[in-house]
Please model this.
Amino acid sequence: MITSAPFIIRPIEQEDNSAIAKIIRDVLIEFGVPKIGTAYEDKTLDCMFETYQQEKHQYYVVEHLGNVVGGGGIAPLQGTDDSICELQKMYFSPIARGKRLGSEMIKKCLSNAKDLGFEKCYLETMPYMETARLLYKKNGFTPLEKPLGNTGHYSCNVWMIKNL
Model:
């Protein structure tokens, strides 16, 4: 069902934790992503609000008709210098797809990253998540030959980066 009600991108709140965790897990299952070596098994998935309260971390959710329908955020890329952030846990329910919300979320996250002093943004995805890869490319991300940092997502084998 398509509705004309607005989608709102806003900072995550504590009461969003269970909804965004469910969305992320549901999308990963929908796309057949392995449950190990991906965001599916991240310990932070059930406490996203608390995780993104740390310095230089920010997570946004997409709200529609009072329900969380997606999200995305940035955080320092572990295992690298402090000039590189990572676009993290950007997933959308089917109702939020195809509405340019992905580009809006990327723009919001990267603007925030630049304001926080990051110079580059890194991300990881899967080769069969074609729509996501096209979205990242459209928003200026370019492929890398090998991963950066230490995300713990050893099952993700597509790596991309963008200068901010």
Observations:
- The two ends are 37 Å apart (CA to CA).
